[in-house]
Amino acid sequence: MSLRTTLRFADGAGAFECVLAQCKSLEGPVAKGLAKGMLTITSSWGVSGSAGVNNVLHVLHVAHGGGPVLRMMAANDASDFVKEHDYCMEKKAALVVEINEARELLLAPVISIQEDGTSTKVFWGYVLPPGLPNLVCAMLERGQLGLVFDLDE
What we know:
Layout: E1 2-9, E2 15-22, H1 28-34, E3 38-46, H2 56-64, E4 70-74, H3 79-91, E5 93-100, E6 103-113, E7 119-128, H4 132-142
């Protein structure tokens, strides 16, 4: 299922249209929060100062325990979308959208390679409790978080 929405910045610095494509089923308050016609970017979260962790996508993937819940792509005019994507890639940051007091949508920039070999700029979205990415990042930096990739083998 795809939703068309506008993503705007809380400080009024701009907005752009995008399409949200679900990767996993969303229910309850999360689905309701994302179904609004407008989402507000409240801040950004990044790992640029982290000693041992250098990829925001890795931290969000580990914190979520799996793949993204949605993909966000540019709608019509992609210039503002591309500008924000490039900024996030450079700063190693994710955009933060508050869904409710218990959940945030973190949008990590990704370059997706299509079947025809072309690349597309997208954001992968992870729904997490506030503060969890910071905790996971700190645990990964200190080597306190053991990861088990496959228990079946």
